[in-house]
């Protein structure tokens, strides 16, 4: 946004929390000129890509170490270690995720970050339009989703691009394959539908729901949940087309 960092202290607590949640990567972070040029093309923000450090670090770590992990995002993690990692990112520590960090802890941290954003990544304001894209003809759905993505704040848009790119890569490793030596490589079993089921409710929702509300799901809520999953699945499967300007 157009807000200078100096003005953060003047904000009330809710606004400063929002800025904390969207802690941005600095533009000058050791990037080559070539990378910067590429980033500008991918972003609707003409200055630089605004992806929270935590999101980018988690995605990079999981792309490097977790693509073959069966049931990634479904297996439990250590709450204590996840909280510790989260606190380090919150304090602005330059956290380096390496192979010592559990894949499941990093996966849980990414989910938590998206779940706890003050306003969901796809924003409450656009919740109904995103869901209503399912009422359109199939060939109109993608172009409408693309227009809705253009309405997101630049930070949300850039973060969504990074996330969908990552989820698409995870889904690409879902099936078992055979390597060049003829050895079977186990897939992670996380198809775009499985990933949309896990991430959809964190990216697109009207209001924070308590666990109690979830346990007594009405049929309307179940239908809504199915719609959220369908929209997010479509976005994972078509993310390249959606971000093609």
From TrEMBL:
<dbReference type="GO" id="GO:0007165">
    <property type="term" value="P:signal transduction"/>
</dbReference>
<dbReference type="Pfam" id="PF00620">
    <property type="entry name" value="RhoGAP"/>
</dbReference>
<dbReference type="InterPro" id="IPR041852">
    <property type="entry name" value="ARHGAP6_RhoGAP"/>
</dbReference>
<keyword id="KW-0343">GTPase activation</keyword>
<dbReference type="InterPro" id="IPR008936">
    <property type="entry name" value="Rho_GTPase_activation_prot"/>
</dbReference>
<dbReference type="InterPro" id="IPR037863">
    <property type="entry name" value="RHOGAP6/36"/>
</dbReference>
<dbReference type="GO" id="GO:1902533">
    <property type="term" value="P:positive regulation of intracellular signal transduction"/>
</dbReference>
<dbReference type="GO" id="GO:0005096">
    <property type="term" value="F:GTPase activator activity"/>
</dbReference>
<feature type="domain" description="Rho-GAP">
    <location>
        <begin position="42"/>
        <end position="243"/>
    </location>
</feature>
<protein>
    <submittedName>
        <fullName>Rho GTPase-activating protein 6</fullName>
    </submittedName>
</protein>
<dbReference type="GO" id="GO:0005856">
    <property type="term" value="C:cytoskeleton"/>
</dbReference>
<dbReference type="InterPro" id="IPR000198">
    <property type="entry name" value="RhoGAP_dom"/>
</dbReference>
